[in-house]
């Protein structure tokens, strides 16, 4: 197992302890749950990873990249190297306080390895050397980057460093895995959007049908009110006619009864 692989596994284990994601993912780490030593250790590891990535990019682009891009990468590398040196000094005190001197020694070895790669890539220049400041610094850095692209082969080629190659091969594998996961998520989101659009369209149709049905029901209800009123008027009229019919029938019955009575008593 190489030193970088060991460090990566150490960081992954640390990430899992504070609630991070799976090993082959790189989620945002909640450093608030780490101890002061672990927070500083994580910061140094991130700076180291970014430094090595920038050095590798400089080694790959050669003369093809613009001077501006080379200047940005160079300044970023110098800044991260200076930050790592300052943070290591602070981390030493924390390692003694938290009794993690072994881990500190292991981390310092990685920082020294990164510094060796930096010196090899930039012709042996140390990050301790104070360079020019202000507007002249940018132009001088740009000239340095231009010379880097056309200079002779550095003392140590990053492609020949087995540890460095393994580190970035693992990073590339993680990037591929993340890209595939993002593609699956994008496909799922697209399908959800299509389903949501179809459901929205169906709901709009159903709402239209409900509105039409409600309008028809209102019309039928109005018609039923009219029919009900007419029916009540008809019943009232029928009741009046029925009363007249009852009176007429009573008169007829009385007439028949009177006629029968008159005939019977006349014969006697």
TrEMBL record:
Record InterPro entries: T_SNARE_dom
Subcellular localization: Membrane
Mode of membrane association: Single-pass membrane protein
Keyword tags: Membrane, Transmembrane, Transmembrane helix, Transport
Main location (coarse class): membrane
Listed transmembrane segments: 245-265
GO cellular component, one term: cytoplasm
Keyword Transmembrane helix: yes
Domain T-SNARE coiled-coil homology: 179-234
Superkingdom assignment: Eukaryota
Protein name: SNARE protein, putative
Organism expressing this protein natively: Bodo saltans (Flagellated protozoan)
